[in-house]
Amino acid sequence: MSSLSLSPFAGIIETQKYPHARTQRTSFSHKLLDCFAVVVGTTPTKHISPTQHVGIFDYLTLFIPYFFAKLFNRLQSNNPYASFLDPLIILNLLLLIPRLALGAVVTVLFSPLIAAVHGISRLLTSKKTYTDALEVCGLTGSRTSFISLRLYMETNGIRDVEALNTRIWQTDYQSFELLFSLKRIVHKTTFQEFKEQAFSIPVSTAANQMNNLQNVRLHHLFRLNIGNVVKTIENMSDPAAKAAILGI
Fold this sequence. Notes:
Layout: H1 21-25, H2 28-40, H3 56-60, H4 64-78, H5 86-124, H6 127-134, E1 137-140, E2 147-148, H7 149-155, E3 164-172, E4 175-182, H8 183-188, H9 191-197, E5 199-204, H10 212-224, H11 229-234, H12 239-246
Antiparallel strand pairs: 1-2, 1-5, 3-4, 4-5
């Protein structure tokens, strides 16, 4: 389970190496949801942001509604049908209304600014960057021939890159596999089951072992942090391997 960030902006700044990746990658509607999550946090909206974080609302209310929400979650996990939870349910619903209302109002007020940021990000990020990122080649399932990430997504009915997440598997000292699949598969299957369903991109940190065109595509994939791949690499325990992969 991921740790909770005390920064309301943690879901927007995804990585250290490419802090603007989410702004460059996401659609206007996703940017509106990101603004909403900055205000409300991820307590009531767990799947809006890839990172669990508090919201501006929590600071404005001195974390009192947050405390009651966490208290209810803790008690419910131990006593899911206990009658003493009813007052807490009503209290949390009452506290949820102003949280969501403030999030909606702020999102509407800031929507012109968000539209401007979205337009600028589209001007600064060429369509070729996005296209090249989806043309990165890999293997999937029992296939022995390489296919593109775009084709993998089309074959599996994945319409949005925001539905992807990544794991890393080290095959030997200088070889790794970047494994992409649906977020729900990442969290609900064993690693072996996940690997059988995932899109696997072989990566070697050895000199001259990577195709130049594949390197360009990987760079664009990293630049946009598709599937939260760069964050996953940054969380690796081996600093040498981390630097080598990000340096491709």
